[in-house]
Amino acid sequence: MAALFYVAKPVAIAVDNQKRGTWVNTVPQPLTGKTLGILGLGAIGGEVARLASAFGMRVIGTRRRPVPMENVAEILPPERTDEVLAQSDFVLLLLPATPDTDNLINAQRLAKMKPGAWLLNFGRGHLIKDDDLIAAAKAKKIAGAVLDVFRQEPLPADHPFWGAEGIIVLPHVGGPHPQRDKFVARLFVDNLGRFLDGAPLKEIVDRAAGY
Hints:
This protein is α/β, with parallel strands linked by helices. It is 31% helix and 13% strand.
């Protein structure tokens, strides 16, 4: 949601203008009526859909098992990803890193997006073919990208993302939480008790699926 507001509202521009003591009239973009496409409608995607819909956004997306979800207008299987890209004003990546998702967003997929659309990656760095994204943003084939995850972290100082036109680099701020250790410890203790009692565990990883 912070990435959506960063793109749509000219707050960063106003801060830069303040440093120069310059008053510049700017017009914020409304999120209401825009389409948010979420690739990877899991638990996090569902929560983002709830928040985005509260701002009047239309939410669509993909899911391996495309069952109806609250606050999501249309859910498609992964093989129809191109349809989501073509409709969306913002494309949010929340997919895991698996052999099937490696380099999912390449030149061909970027060409399916609207020229004014933004790509937001808060999933895994392996989802994007870096060179193709840099080229698409530079050529204005998309409006730009907000990236919070990368193939290598910290992002190397010589990586072209740092100076790429239209690309915002964030230092993986989407994962940390001030009480994360407490949440993890609570889950571990709960699962330990379940394991000793022979009860089903929570938050199980599907090794076949890869996440």
